[in-house]
Amino acid sequence: MSGQQTDKQRLIGSWRHLGSTTGDKPRAERGSTPKGIIIYDAHGHVACQVAPDREVTKAGAAPTGEEAKAAFRSGADRMAANMDLIRREEFEALKAEVAALRAELATLKKPAKG
Length: 114
What we know:
Blueprint: H1 7-11, E1 13-17, E2 21-22, E3 25-26, E4 35-40, E5 46-51, H2 65-81, H3 88-109
Antiparallel strand pairs: 1-4, 2-3, 4-5
């Protein structure tokens, strides 16, 4: 049995994205045959990149500046919505709280005089 890989070990690596569904139906915004890759590492991190297979509406042969900005914002918003992000203010508040707790812990670890 020592030669067999665990489920975790078998999952580590890169995988071809074959599609995604919502409620057993293909996700329309990705088109009929999206292409992508999913990567899992040994530390539990995952990365996923999916290129939709659908026509993108544009005003002309190339997107206008506004169309390009809107497409970028839309993609960035979708990506951010799927991430566990916090605002800068929340991060700074947590950082200050951790610093205060570390100072308190350092005080508690000091040997008692006497």
